[in-house]
Amino acid sequence: MMTASAHLLSQQQDTYSERRNARAPDFILMQLDPRDVIEGVLLEEGFQSEDAPSAGHMREHCPHCSGVQLQLILRYKFVKRSHLFCSSCTRCYDALYPDGTSALALSAMSLV
Ligand SMILES: [Zn+2]
């Protein structure tokens, strides 16, 4: 019985990962201080910086805004480090693998 139920479980997981995009594992989103990711000035109404070019949309959604896909911002000029950006609430995130390493630190372009 143990074998049968274990097999059934793995079949369900395969179906699940095929329906999702199977290229990458689920990421843990960690909110970043915008001052750590982009050069800008802190104003009373919030952090203001130049618009950074988006390299594409991630399949991850912003945890604070339902249905808003995060954009991938690569390190570029005034962008200090690659990060995920929500155009709705302007929060910045890092994407961590389940083991805690940053998915954006190495080859962020392969994520889009
Ligand atoms: Zn948001």
Written description of the protein model:
- The protein has 112 residues and is an alpha+beta fold.
- It has one domain (24-111).
- It is built from 2 helices and 7 strands.
- The protein has helices spanning 2-19, 34-37, and strands spanning 28-32, 40-43, 46-49, 54-61, 69-73, 83-85, 92-96.
- The strands form 2 sheets. It has a 5-stranded antiparallel beta sheet with strand order 1-7-6-5-4. A two-stranded antiparallel sheet has the order 2-3.
- It is globular and about 35 Å long.
- The termini are far apart.
- The model has no long low-confidence stretch (mean pLDDT 81).
- Residues 1-20 are annotated as: Disordered.
- Weakly predicted, low-confidence segments: none
- The count of domains is 1
Oligomer: single chain
**Straight-line distance between termini:** 42 Å
Question: Helix segment count?
Answer: 2
Mean pLDDT: 81
Give helix and strand order, one letter per element, not per position: HEHEEEEEE
Give the spatial strand order of the biggest sheet. Answer: 1-7-6-5-4
Main pleated sheet: 5 strands, antiparallel
Give helix % range: 10-25%
Portion of residues in beta strands equals 25-35%
Which shape, going by the Cα principal axes? Answer: globular
How many β-strand stretches?
7
Structural class by secondary-structure content = alpha+beta
Instruction: Evaluate the radius of gyration.
Output: 17 Å
Secondary-structure map:
Layout: H1 2-19, E1 28-32, H2 34-37, E2 40-43, E3 46-49, E4 54-61, E5 69-73, E6 83-85, E7 92-96
Antiparallel strand pairs: 1-7, 2-3, 4-5, 5-6, 6-7
This protein binds zinc ion.
